[in-house]
């Protein structure tokens, strides 16, 4: 079977069998079966999902990462695992790159990291802790991009993701009858105040950032009870790690003040922090050369700046000596990433795999 046809078959399998973060058991097993079938040495882990494979010889180690988890979301009225972020495509492109590379002469070793739980924001750390990037000099990733970022047929050498963090909070007040609000502590009033407050936080117009409420849950079936308890969540993003940290601090301070003003308790939990990209100019240049080799100047797209985030960038936060870049593949993707009905042109899969293979091969021959 031709490699491009095999990539399509792999994609079909992973697309039809999505698994959520930390539950990618069958996905890991399938990846292991594919690697075994190709005669590629690899290992899995006893305590987490995911796999690591390696080809080539020598002291230099170049790595590539594929995220393997799916989202949990409502699709046609039913909540289920769903590959609406394209990780099924990422797995298939990385396996395709491996298929193209395993018979080539290489200047070093190439390590293939099939990482769990990108959507939870901590899967990369689990791989770092288990030695997946030990000895690695350059790290590459790959991801399909929405049509508004890159048109079909073009490939970008780097994606400059923003930083993100999520706030989940619980308001504890006291229920009251709708006719006697003075007897209780309304949990909704401070939430509305917080929603208004976060819109009033401003930075330089040259900085990209946002904070918006994404969940409020309060009250029950009785419409004459003012709820004393509620939970809410806020999605916080910035293009730089420094702005995100300051935005987080301002929100923390504002919530404490609003809690005091309304005489309620607000318990705050920050989670799923994902850092902004630290793109290596050298790694992006290597990817640029790989793109030129496979699709030519007409297929080269500039680097992308996006407010989306990816835990890929934890690798360089924890191992700053690693030179990293994530390749973006134009795929006519719409309506958008994380949309439950996301679709794309599958012809992009082989193009992404070939560009990735060329990039990785070039990196092994660096002096």
UniProtKB/TrEMBL annotation:
Residues 164-255 form the Peptidase M20 dimerisation domain. Gene3D superfamilies: 3.30.70.360, Zn peptidases (3.40.630.10). PANTHER family: AMIDOHYDROLASE AMHX, PEPTIDASE M20 FAMILY MEMBER. This is Amidohydrolase. It comes from Sporosarcina highlanderae. The lineage of its organism: Bacteria, Bacillati, Bacillota, Bacilli, Bacillales.
